[in-house]
Amino acid sequence: MLWLCIHLPQLRHESQAANAVEAIERLAAWCYQWSSQVNYRLEQSNASALLWVEIGASRELFGGHGVLLKRIDSGLTDLGYTHVCALAPSPLGAALLTRVQRQRCVFTPAQLRMRLEPLSLTLLDMAPEIGYALQSAGLQRIGQVLALPPAALARRFGPQLTLYLRRLLGQASDPRPAWQLPPVWRARCEFGCELRDTTALLFPLQRLLQEFQGYLRGRDCSVLRFTLRLEHHQRPASDLAIGLSAPARDAALFLQLARERLHQLVLPAPVLGLQLEALEFTAPSIVQQDFFGSPAEQLQQFQLLLDRLRARLGNEQVQGLAATADHRPERAWQMSRQIASTRSISALSASSPSTSTPTPPGTSRRPCFLKLDPQPIPPPPHLLSGPERIESGWWDRADVIRDYYVARGEDGARLWVFRDLSDGSWYLQGLWS
């Protein structure tokens, strides 16, 4: 096993969380994307903490320990945490190495012992009276203590000291309860002052979304919806629901949509705190990259456009068309909040103009442009095909009886016209581009 220990000396101050436990557990959830074995320990003052992540089983998945350490270090920096990372084959050894200035990464028990031997005895995590007794005996280095017979140390200071030294060197097991991810996600940050501009919320929101992304990756899931709650003093909180067209777990996308919503928001009162909440999750939607571009990538770009339009204009302002079971062309569709299904868009994207069959003049395929209110016209001189009888609508007292034709206009355009058999008048229903 190979343990990464992350020392966070200013966790409580830098996290903006309500308490140290919430702060370290949010960071533990973020670390879960790298390993399922995560453990932490808060220091006595609760201002700092130690966070352990076992990366021996997953380092090859991320390209080796060097690449993985760089990604974790870069992520912690982006989150705004002051941190020191160390790597060792034992959790206690990794924790001790976070307190030295250099050579914080060792990979075998032999390398760990060689690194510990020249270090000061004061770095050992033991009772003050034991350290004072060892120093009174003239011992100054960890290597001098390790050279003493374990039986003599146990008789003098008890078996706990020898067990601690064996665990430090990786010679004895050091079982630690694995921290588990919560079933729902709630993260909250408090501000030390009142924020009166939504732009000032973007920096703490970016941190919350990055932690949220790590949680989603750790659970291997995505979301279709999450909520931002803006807390005010002695006023009800303002809730912003962020919805997506397809499952996602990318913090950059979340921030982009949240920025659009916040840009339109007028704050009813200054903001004292910000909370992110997600209660429902779904399977991830991962698109395989293609050199030439695939229908799935086009669908993803289309869904991103829809999400941005909804975030900026509102859900009610972005609508699609849905077919209805009615033969009357002007009533064969209706407005719908559902833009289109994933399957229908994928099928549309998969078809290319080069393989589509041109529409011959005699077919009954409908034109691309239909008039909601048919336009009265004089009898067309050139009819190319028809008639096609449409007789319907008796059940809603708007019944029609029409003969439809494909005609040629004076400018050569193909027109879809009909003759109303009730009075013999002619109308333009649609045209082809």
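the 2nd protein, sequnce then structure:
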Amino acid sequence: MYFDADAHVEESSETWKHLDEKFSGRRPIPITVDDQPSLLGQNSFWLIDGNTVPRVRGRGLSLFGTPTTSRHARAKPFSIPSQELSDVGARLRDLDRFGIDVQVVNSTLLNATLSSDIEFEYALCRAYNTWIAGVCRQAPDRLRWNAMIRLTDCARAVDELRRVAADGAASAEIHGMAGDRMLDGRALDPFWAEAERLNLPVYVHIGFESPAFTGLFENLYMSIAFSNRASLLMGFIAIVGTGIAERFPKLRFALAEAGVEWLPWLLRVMDSYWQLGRGAFGNAPEFGHSQTKPSEIVRIGNIYVVCEEDEALAKPLELLGEDRSMLGSEMPHSESHPNSFLAFQERSDISDSAKRKILGENAVEFFAR
């Protein structure tokens, strides 16, 4: 089985049809402008509370394929109905083209913070989750969905966690930060505890979650290549290094869309400072480290990573074991590699058992409920 652990949908106006009536006057509106070279093909935007998303100029930069009226979106090798999932059959034909049996769908637009109004942000997430659940129910054996959860208000996050778990979400998708805050605070423990109780895995995806951090960037290349990926690494340090995974040992976590080659380097750094905390600081809790060595948490715990088809995997697999790596296609994003499953199958540097697990078996285990 080829199980695609990281794919996406490009949101359309249909996405917001379930938005709470309270916010009907603030429904995101797609707009299209003249296609100027400086826009890099991103000549369509969402108008949300008077701001345009994505942003390709100024600060807080991002680049998305939604709305699909942009030149950027229409240059892709996927039909608009497949990108938007307005025609589920079109997406299934794309899966068939690349031999993919099952695909987990993530949001695109909600990988950025869309409003400073926390209540409105949660309403947007709820509307998206309700919409994508209905879409994927049209092909439940082929399409599954990750629920988008914000962690800026823990009580609201727990409520939405319960709702999406009952509605069949494959996992709870978060980013590596909670708005402008890190994930290590104990105030989020009710969320982790409820996810563990529900047996709903937590899926940490790259994103432009923190307005403060994303706002540092005025170079689109740097923002895309670094800022959204850096947030995932911050999340990994909090989950593994400060004791979250340790306190909730039955909760499964996945790290998606940053590859896996960063893992040996970051774990080496984390282990080094963990040793410092255990030694020079006398294991003082004020240092903030986990009681268990980070590499040991990764080795024996429930930490999964979505790798890239062409990455060097020897060292990451040594740290993770072959049971906790998955593969994703990124369909239908511009940087997608939908042929990755067929290409990965042809690799000669990975054992057949590891291939079988990475291509599908590990994802089945991670998303099992």
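The radius of gyration is 20 Å. DSSP finds 14 helices and eleven strands in the chain.
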